[in-house]
Amino acid sequence: MIEAYAEHGLIISSNDTKQTSKISNFHFDEYQIGKTATEFLIQKGCSNVAICMDNPFNHAQKLRLSGYKKALKKHSLTYNEGYVFSSAFTIDDGMKIGRNIKKMYPNIDGIYTGNDYVSAGIQKVLEDKVVLIGTDNHDICKITRPQLSSIALPVAQMSEDISNHVVECLLTSNKETLNQQYDFDLIVR
């Protein structure tokens, strides 16, 4: 749908997993992120692993969920739809999810969250009863006790690359479309 507007000027997509050859896209491998984070929890001994997402209808989140499911299947663990939590954005959301888990799903022993603030909120409620890994490697990971593991995304580099591409496209006749996928790092704490 958005491709139709490309003839009117520059369009750049950031972290859109539905890539097109007509629009530059700067993104992460969301499937692999979900799989890696889930496998980290499994390697830590977790067998009842949950996932927290922000918007379950977002394609990037769907890919993370697919990676999560693939890791569970690879390790012969059962996928439980009740272990999928959404609308998780803030520390308060994490605390709400933590209380829900404590009440409804006490067997959950590992949780992958879409951001570190949700992890911190869950940790505040569940303390050391679960192993957590978040996403984005925010500084909050360093001040929680225990410190939180996270998937580090090179957002600053991606932002710089997008800015440079916009400037180049605006200042020159170069209208080349780019498809730049960025690596991520597993930060274990």
UniProtKB/TrEMBL annotation:
Molecular function GO terms recorded: DNA-binding transcription factor activity; transcription cis-regulatory region binding
Coiled coil: none
Keywords attached to this entry: DNA-binding, Transcription, Transcription regulation
Keyword Nucleotide-binding: no
Record's protein name: LacI family transcriptinal regulator
Keyword Membrane: no
All copies of domain Transcriptional regulator LacI/GalR-like sensor, residue ranges: 39-173
Record organism: Staphylococcus microti
